[in-house]
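Lab notebook, design round three. We kept the backbone fixed and only want residue identities now. Task for the bench partner: fill in a sequence for the structure below.
Input structure tokens:
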């Protein structure tokens, strides 16, 4: 189970400071009164940003591990929330997702980039839509990063939403929230799922 590690560090700072050593989970989330053998359980490694470790705990009674994900990192996706935000912002500003994708990942053929980008755009917009529903007075805007940035008066929306959305993170879609991704593609995107549409013509090399 992923939990929030509140920290104001960038991904680079988190790694250079070894900030996972400062992560603390004093009580078992399942057994706050103790007596379950809850203890620190080392760390696990994430590939990006290089050198990233995530602090982990284990409850032997509940057979559950708990990891503390810092605010800068995307949940269940590689890299940082800032990196995910950059992709979604590019898609929001471009005339089409195809147009955004041609610039984003020249190393991957367009259909591959489209899947990669669409997954991020859908997941982020689904989380924004859900937050609008949960906090309608706070977010009387459309469910885009551009609109949320204006609403919040911040440049980086996703990092700012981790503390605001904290009570709901377990039920918000990753990479903002910690809800597990669906096994079946499109299985839980529900009403927020966009039509996929035909693949665009491949760009000649
Ligand atoms: Zn426990």
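Proposed sequence:
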């Amino acid at each position: 189970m992923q939990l929030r590690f509140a920290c104001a560090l960038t991904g680079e700072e988190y790694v250079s400071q070894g900030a996972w050593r400062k992560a603390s989970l004093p009580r078992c989330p399942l057994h706050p009164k103790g007596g379950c053998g809850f203890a620190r359980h080392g760390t696990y490694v994430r590939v990006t940003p290089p050198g990233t470790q995530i602090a982990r705990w284990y409850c032997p009674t509940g057979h559950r591990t708990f990891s503390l994900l810092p605010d800068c990192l995307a949940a269940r996706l590689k890299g940082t929330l800032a990196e995910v935000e950059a992709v979604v912002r590019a898609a929001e500003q471009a005339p089409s997702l195809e147009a955004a994708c041609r610039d984003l990942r020249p190393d991957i053929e367009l259909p591959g980039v489209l899947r990669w980008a669409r997954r991020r755009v859908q997941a982020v917009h689904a989380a924004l839509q859900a937050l609008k529903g949960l906090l309608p007075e706070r977010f009387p805007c459309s469910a885009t990063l551009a609109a949320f940035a204006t609403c919040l008066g911040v440049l980086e929306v996703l990092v700012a939403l981790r503390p605001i959305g904290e009570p709901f993170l377990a039920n918000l879609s990753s990479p903002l929230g910690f809800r597990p991704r669906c096994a079946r593609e499109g299985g839980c995107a529900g009403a927020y799922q966009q039509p996929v549409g035909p693949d665009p013509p491949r760009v000649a090399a």
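Keep this in mind before ordering anything: Residues 110-134 form the longest helix (25 residues).
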